[in-house]
Structure formats: C-alpha cells, structure tokens
Amino acid sequence: MTTPTSFPMAVAVTDLFVDDTYQRDCDVKRVRKIAAEWDPRLVGVLDVSDRGEQANPRFAIINGQHRWAAAGLRDPDAHLVVNVHTGLDLAGEAQLFDDIDRKTKPISTWDRWRARKAAGDPDVTVIEDAVTQLGLEINPRPGPKNLRCITSLEKLLRKGGQSLVVNTLFLITDTWPPSVDALEGAVVAGVGILLDSFDDVEAGATFKTGRLADAMVEMTPRQIRAQAQSLREFESGSLATMVAVVLVRLYNRERGPKLDEKAIRG
C-alpha cells in the first residue's frame, strides 16, 4: 500500500459510489430534503478514496454520501468538489470514515461498530468471534439469536477478556431458550458481572455454574430484569448490577454454600 496522500479536484457524481461495508445506510428522506433545499454554498467538500483507474466507479465516498445522492437526484451530470485520498485500503477507508464522523457529527453505535469491524478493530473482532462460536449474531434487528447489546459485551470484554464473553453467553443460551429477553443488555451484563465476581479459584468451592443455571431457570429473563428494576428503587447500582444481585439471591436459595452479595464487582 502506498503512502496515503490527499488533494482536491472536481469529480462527476457518476464516478462516485458508496461502499456498504463501512458506510451507514442512506437516509432517503434526508437526501430528498437536501435536494429540495439545494444550496451550493452548503455542499462543501466531500472526502473520497481513489480506488484506482481500474475501478468503475472509481471514487469511494468516505464522507458526504447524502450530499452526493442529493446532487445526483437533482442533476445526474453534476460535478462535486472532493478531497481525494490515495493509498488507502478498505480498512484505511473505514478508519478515516470513523475518524471524520467522530469529529464532525455523532453517529449511531451500530454505524460505528460497522466501521470498526471493517477497520479490523481487535475488540470488535474478538467479540464477533465469540458470538459466532455460539451460533449468535451481532445484529441491531430484534431476533432470538441477535445480540444488540454491544456496549455490554465490550464492558465484559474489558472485565474478563473473550472467555468471560463466551462463558456469559454460553450460560445464558444453555439455560434459557434463545430470545430477545435473554440476550437483553442488562441481563447479559448482569450474568457477566456475576461470573466475573465469583467464577475464580478463590470462589471455586462456593460458586458452581451448574447450581447457578438451576437457579436461573426458576425465573424468566424478563422476570429477573423486572426484579432488578424494582431493586434500583431501594439500592444503588446499575441495572446490570441489580440483575447480578437478583441472580445471587436466587443462587443462595439453592442448597449449599452461600455467595456474599458484597463481593459483586459491578
């Protein structure tokens, strides 16, 4: 890969395209609004990546896809001023997209996740691999096997690495049928907090995941979350921490050594 450089030039809208690997979905209503209220003074300069003479279209849009779409809607023969970036591979484009959007406007967690995934972010890669191992999928759409709690998963990764992520998701999916409720963020994080707090050598004699699973099946994920929500009215801590508290109390109902709630590391 050559050393990245950039320079301005005018490019026909037909020579520009959007790579869905890292770009957010186009907002058609926004495009129509920009086209209807078109003001050349507000178009500004788009950032694009030169994919080379062999590519057709040649320039991948990094920043400005809605302005490009609006320009093409108004005039298919239009030209736009762009800042051409050369020497970027796909990961480099995705990283630049993320960098520019962080500085110019907020993007959704999901848009950022896609960009980080395309850029080869190691944390995203580890989580995606862990999720795939269990037959699940990182997906913002509601579904019984779709994980939408990427913020919770990243917190678990920072707490205990990939093993904590895998162990948490395995315990949940092995205990309850896959569902939106079972894979909800506070539930996933709460189970992970409990495992991180007790599943170690020191607690080995007291804490057993099998016993925890037996306790968990006594309630549905929705019931556990509801109890955790009620606890927050009387105790301090995040909803995920309260889920962990509820789970500890369920665990302690079972026969055997008891867990100390104070040991929960929320």
Strand and helix layout:
Layout: E1 5-12, E2 16-17, H1 28-36, E3 46-50, E4 59-63, H2 65-74, E5 79-86, H3 90-104, H4 109-118, H5 122-133, E6 137-138, E7 146-147, H6 150-175, H7 185-198, H8 209-216, H9 221-231, H10 239-253
Helix pairs in contact: 1-2, 3-4, 5-6, 6-7, 6-8, 7-10, 8-10, 9-10
Descriptors:
two-stranded parallel sheet; alpha/beta; 49% helix
Would you kindly provide a written description of the structure presented here, covering whatever features stand out?
With 266 residues, this protein is an alpha/beta fold. The protein has 2 domains: 5-118, Conserved hypothetical protein from pyrococcus furiosus pfu- 392566-001, ParB domain (Alpha-Beta Complex); 122-263. It has 10 helices and 7 strands. The protein has helices at 28-36, 65-74, 90-104, 109-118, 122-133, 150-175, 185-198, 209-216, 221-231, 239-253; strands spanning 5-12, 16-17, 46-50, 59-63, 79-86, 137-138, 146-147. A 5-stranded mixed sheet has the order 1-5-3-4-2. The protein has a two-stranded parallel sheet with strand order 6-7. β3 and β4 form a beta hairpin. The longest helix is centred in the middle third of the chain and has 26 residues, at 150-175. The chain is elongated. It starts with a strand and ends in a 13-residue tail after the last helix. The mean pLDDT is 91.
